[in-house]
Give the backbone structure.
Amino acid sequence: MKKTLSFVLVLCLTLSLGTVPALASEKVEITFWKQLFEEFDQDWTTKMVEEFNAQSDKIHVSLEFVDQGALEERMTAARAAGTAPDVYVVNYSNLATDVRNGYNLATEGLIPKEAYDDLYENVLDMITVDGHVYGYPHLLEPAAVMYYRKDLLKAAGFENPPKTWQEHIDMAKALTTDDVFGTTMTMDWSMWGWEHTAMGHWPLTEDWSSADIKDLAPLLTYIKQLYDDESAPAQALEHYNNSATLVANDSVAITFSGSWGIAALRNDWPEMVDKIGVAAVPTADGSPFQSTMGGWTYQIDAKSQHPEAAAEFITWLLADDPSRPAAFFEAAHFSKYTVRKSVDKWLVENTEAGEDEWLQTVARDIIPYGIKEPSYPWDVSAFLLAAMNEVVINGVSPEDALATAEQEINTFIENSKLVKPE
């Protein structure tokens, strides 16, 4: 009895002094680093983290936005110090390298199987490395979308945008005037999808032992014709990432950019939206174009002390109630695309997505044929872009330009001892 009374007295005293820890167990703290993207992305992420923390009685997420320019350096330092965040976001194209460096935790058994069953098949492939799945994907951004002016095409007698290279050549020539170019063709990183679609494979042999680009000559010939006809401007009017705006400011009738151009048009050129259409990029024979798909996947650090808590947060945010990720896509003006079937269904039933012509076109004609970004070094792409420029600017034949590129790629492979990861 005396011991019990003493304990009560001590407890009362320490409570009055404010020095007793809470009797309830403390929440598990997990850290989450998110790159600084668009403002709407920051708003959505902040709101979701606040909601998660408010509803969870056992986990608290500490969110920090990190400038992309500083992220790699900070992550390197944090990994060396053993203080890497529990949760962070990785580009699909970097995931395999990160996994092979031992940075990421496989999440089978941590994230429910039904969450993965809800993913589109080509998206599941983007987070699968060596037969294991890592984290959970957030979004898709097709790197190549064709934007065109409906009114200019109609005035020139065209009811639909081009589906083949020859249609594009003919249409661009007819649409070119003293004031407007018929088309643009910006040789940039975005050529990945053009190259893969044209050849049916990447520009290296399966084992990365040599270049495999002879089948690329028809693509270069097609591009050359657009410039020979003066349908495309000799100097790029805009960087590729901002090229969608060229159809809004009356510079060109047909242009190409990523799906993010949709948000730019809706935000900055709302008065022009009804005059603009989007479509899949034309191909040699009108078959589906294989756009590379950019995007981001949420990952758990391999050395996280709280992988279960991290997985619970990711599941709640991205893989559970479809209205949560759906709010992100609505805020993005449907310029980015969901990875989940159930979220697509929710958007159609509860937002303007079902009536959105651009979203429906991208979802129907582009997303299903999307492919991963390549994982070989950028040097290979740089040699191919140089070959394209030789053809367009200096009049070198496609065959000769590709022969030079082939030699350069093979020399690079030999010098760098390039070997495809197992």
